[in-house]
Amino acid sequence: MKKQLLSLFVTLIVFCIGNSAFTQEKLADTKLGLQILDYIKNNEKLSHLTSTDVADIYLDRTSYSKSSGVTHVYLYQSYKGVKIYNAISNVAIKNNEIFYFKDNFVPNLKDKVNVLSPSLKAVEAMQKAATHFKINIEGSPEVVSSSTLKKVFSKGGMSQENVPVELMYLKDKDGNLKLVWDLSIYTKDSKHWWSVRIDAINGAVLDKDDWVINCSFEGEHTHQNGHITSVLKQTHTFDVFKKSMFFVDGSQYNVLPLPIESPNHGSFQVITNPADPEASPFGWHDTDGIAGAEFTITRGNNVWAQDDIDGINLTNGGSPDGTASLNFNFPITTLDQDAANYLDAATINLFYHNNVMHDIWYYYGFDEASGNFQENNYGNEGDDGDGVVAQAQDGSGTNNANFATPPDGSAPRMQMFLWSPAGIATDNLTISGGTIAGNYGSVKPSRGNGADGTGNITGPSSTPVTGALVIVDDGGVIPEEGCSPLVNSANVAGKIAVIRRGSCAFTEKIQNAQDAGAIAVIVANHNNPTSDPDYVPYVNMYGVTDPEFTIPSIFVNYDDGQTIISAIRRRERITATIVDNGPFFKDSSFDNGIVIHEYGHGISTRLTGGANNSGCLNNNFQMGEGWSDWFTLMLTMKASDLGTDGRGIGTFASGEEIDGQGIRTRKYSTDFGVNEYTFNETNDDRVVGQDADTGEDIRLNEIVHYNGTIWATMLWDLTWAYVDKYGFDPDLYKGTGGNNKVMRLVIEGLKLQGCNPDFIDGRDGLLAADIALTGGADQCLIWEVFAKRGLGVAASRGDLAVFNDQVEDFTVPDASDPSLANCTTLSADTFNTSDYKIYPNPATNTITITSNRNLGDVKLQLVDINGRMVLTKSTTLSRNVDLDISGLQSGLYVLKIVGAYNSTNHKIIKE
């Protein structure tokens, strides 16, 4: 039931002003809290909570949503003062009334707690975590701050940030609560920001999340907290100044503007004064809230874009300088060249789109109060000091991108990598003279050498290097491996060194050759690129280069290497020319879809469970990947698009044409013939590989991008339902089309769905968001969309700890449901939950549809997985209707029941 809260609105506003957005006061100690406790006590749906369960609840954060008029209150549960990890519930208040309560509290606390005090000290827990993740602790970390339940340790050489260690309870898979130490470690290589729970009794690692989210084809992501600039909040007359004196700074950027997705989708354009006056009132290069730019480089309040070619992940990379005129018109003539040649242009595009993401989503509710990314919140709610650190051409990896999202007030990091080119370089190595003259295929070293050291490993350039070939000799058992200082330096000097792959790092071989005076290196590799199914046209390199390499190196396959070595040993007089004629790496900073996707992780992480919590999207469903793909699709939509089109993600970075498959298992489309995914696909637990570290099986539905694709498929269907109803508006900031309405709906839904959401929580959050935004005008539309993909009213999430027990359902609520009172899509003749059933399924010869009332004239259509209509029948759906499928081949089909007012889809298996 709903309970009126007297004077709640006034109380809440005073509460928020007095305590900012970060509160953490005991619920029972505030007037607002007492009113919420009264609601819990008198709500039948919350009757499972005992007085002990709610005796120790704290106000974690509040934020007001301008779009909906909803105040979001986030609560966390404790037991005897010890917080319960992710036991975060959120309350939505509108018009002085609690209209939505997402319960994530643990019931019957006192019966589930294992112990009251730890056996393990906080510092010991930190040491256990370091051992688990193979991290060295240098010296004895200092205690920076200390309280009864929490200690903060200095970085200690193990982390880029101080290490907070707090006593908490963790709910295990059986529902019991174990006392743990909760801590976070941001590894020095920026590849992981571990959030981990250590058993406070025996030191075992019980639970871990990574705030860094990586987005390769196989899937994963990142986070970082390196404060760029700490600026005091400007609490003076900002609101008046913001509305009347927006600063036009004359800035211009040569970029791929939205809705262009990549260089394959459109051309570079010069955009002038793009900063939005509401979202970025002092422009993109300000940090102090006073007219005039603080930075003339790609740095400002929302983002600092820089390169990280060396892959050392510090905030000291280069940033293009637009000078005092903020002119970032850095022309780029072609991408068919080494990526280093257009580094400035890539960094500018990265800076531009991080700012655009900030400004667009500000209008839909991702603002300061909700935890957006700004160095200076200009006197508004939320915490300062967390503009995005965006790194172009990051050298610590390839074929990936990532985003790390710590809690509000700590800076996220976006890392954009180069993606390997398609095809083998066929003419980068030319040999002249002797019996082996001709062009040879080769691969290049990856740029940078990651976290194992500094320096740069160079491949071939557009300037040819020509010289005689000589085999290296290190004086060892296999002298041509070059693992020790060369004993034939006099012969190597001024020539191209040929080295056989062997027992030491590539960097050591190349270093020894360079020290001996070689002008280039050819490494004879073990694998054969033309036949190796795992071949990629580059070689990852690790190790310290000191001094940095100045000579190019390439890698040939085993057969070609043997041919070259044999010819040299026959004393043939041969020379070689090494030059980079491609194929060239793709720069993901030009794939706007990937940039948007990464930034989207920051949005969904900050909004789910409140901006103080970064661990609320880490259950089995991994829906964050779905929202991020959806963000990409939304901002690259065009008026000419159709819902039935197939949209791939990351086609540019992966070297495909614009109509390519992309990096997901399905294209996004409303057409079941293109994308047939329904909720049941989350049960697909086929083994698709093994974990490289543990050897354990990896199952398809354990891969984050797989489940994310299913969720994004549903959101994409929802988008097109809104566009079909309300039209499309290309204005991404203040448009009024269906695309704008669904953007507002999704942001509000993220705030409402609660911590650790599954698909049903996500659906319910959107339904609640529609009530908040429109009074429920689109409840029917939302239900119909999700029901078609198997997320109808009777769908079941199963056990969140289990991967394959979800149950799909294709029915919508009964039209008499009170929540549908304000929507107009469903009618009295709509099919609903209790009207009919379909059996048997799987079936061999006949499918029977049994209805308990006359549902009128319908068409029964059976569609195969390729979208072909294989059977159709017109009938009156009353009592029993049989459908003969005996003549069909075995397999999966979709049965469409199309009536006058509605249609439903059901998956049918023909045995």
TrEMBL record:
Domain Secretion system C-terminal sorting: 838-909
Organism phylogeny: Bacteria, Pseudomonadati, Bacteroidota, Flavobacteriia, Flavobacteriales
Similarity comment: Belongs to the peptidase M36 family.
Domain FTP: 61-99
PANTHER family with a match to the protein in the record: EXTRACELLULAR METALLOPROTEINASE MEP
Taxonomy, superkingdom: Bacteria
Domain PA: from-to ranges: 465-564
Keywords: Hydrolase, Metal-binding, Metalloprotease, Protease, Secreted, Signal, Zinc, Zymogen
Subcellular localization, as worded in the UniProt entry: Secreted
GO BP: proteolysis
Named cofactor requirement(s): Zn(2+)
Coiled coil: none
GO MF annotation list: metalloendopeptidase activity; zinc ion binding
Alphabetized InterPro entries for the sequence: FTP_domain, Fungal_virulence_M36, PA_dom_sf, PA_domain, Peptidase_M36, Peptidase_M4/M1_CTD_sf, Secre_tail
UniProt KW Transcription regulation keyword: no
Stated name of the protein: Metalloprotease MEP2
A Gene Ontology cellular-component term: extracellular space
Signal sequence range: 1-23
Entries under Pfam families matching the protein: FTP (PF07504), PA (PF02225), Peptidase_M36 (PF02128), Por_Secre_tail (PF18962)
